[in-house]
Amino acid sequence: MAHIAIPEGLPGISGGFAFRPETAKPMRELAHILLHEPNSLAPGERELIATYVSSQNDCYFCQTSHGAAAAAHLGDDEIVKRVKADFQHADISDKLKALLVIAGKVQQGGKHVTAEDVQNARDLGASDLEIHDTVLIAAAFCMYNRYVDGLGTWQPRDESMYAAMGKHLATEGYRKPSTENVEVA
Amino acid sequence: MPHIELPDGLFGIRSAMAFRPETAKPLNELVEVLLRGPSSLTPGERELIATYVSYLNDCYYCQTIHGAIAAASLNDDEELVKRVKADFQHADISDKLKALLLIASKVQKGGKHVTAEDVEQARSLGATDVEIHDTVLIAAAFCMYNRYVDGLATVQPHDDEMYRARGKRVAREGYVTVSTEYLAAATAGR
After folding, report:
1. Whether A128 contacts chain B with CB within 8 A
2. What is the predicted ipTM?
3. What value does the mean pLDDT of chain B take?
4. CATH fold label, A16-172
C-alpha cells in the first residue's frame, strides 16, 4: 500500500503525478526534453541511460517502463537486458558506454564523476551537451526513482502493461499521461 | 574547473542552467512549486528540508544557498540552520518537522528506506498527505539538483556574504524571477 492516499489504479509515478498535478507538470516537461525531444543522442540511447540508472537505484517501475520505452525505440528487448546486466559487453557504441560510466558515477553521487571519465567520453566523440544531458538524465532519475519508491507506489508485475506504456512513451513522449489507454490488470 | 564549458561569471546550478536554458525552465518551475508555492509548510520549513538533504549529499553550493534562503525566511536565524544540519533532533523546530526531516533523510539514502512507521509517526504529529508527499519530493528533487551541480563540477565559491545576499533575494523574489536574469544574460552572451 502506498504511504499516502494517492488515486487508486495508477501505477508508479502516475499515482504521484495524479496526486499533485502542480509538481507533475514540470517533472513531465523535464523528462520530455531530456528523453524525447530532438538531440544528437537518439531517444533509445537516452532511454537506456534512464533505464540503467533506474536499475542501479533498484526502482522496479522506472527500470521496467523506461526499459520498455528503450526497447520500443530500438526494436530490441535483449539489448536493454544486456545494458542493465553488463553494458560494457552490450552491442552499443563506445561513446554510449563512456556516457553510461558517467551516469553510473552520478548515481553514486555527483563528486564521483572524474575529469578522466569526461575526457574519455569526449575522446569517443561526446559533445559538451551530450555530457551535460547524461549528467542531468542520471541526476533526474535519482529523483524520479526516489519519488516512486519513497511514496511506496503500486508497481504491478505485468509485462504487457509496461510494453504498452513503453510504446506510448516512445511515440508520444512525456507531456501526457501514458496510463490513460493502458489496461491495468 | 567544470567538466564542460559553462558560461563565465556564474556559479553552481546557475552556470549549468545557463548552459541549457531548455532544461532550466522546468527545473526552476519545480523548485518554485515545491519550496515557495502554496503549502501548509512554510517556505522556511521547506528550505530547511532542502538544506538538510543537500548537506547529506555533501553539495556545498546547494546546502549553502538553500541554508541562506532558509535563514532569510526564518528571521535571519543562521544558528537554527546550522543546528538542523548538525543535529535536527535537538534543533528548535516542531516535532512534525523533525518527523518530516527523518523521512527526507531516508529518501536521500533511497526511496525504499522510507517505512510505514516513519510516515505514521509524521502523521501522528500532524503531517498531512500533501506535506508527506512534498517532503518526499523535495528530498528526491535535491538528490537530483545536488548531483547536477557536483556532477558537472560547477564552480562553487566559498563566500558567505555572496550566499547571504543571494539567499535574501531568492527568499524575496523567488526562483523563477531571479532565473530570468541570469538565463537572459547567458543567452545574450552566446
Report:
1. yes
2. 0.98
3. 97
4. AhpD-like (1.20.1290)
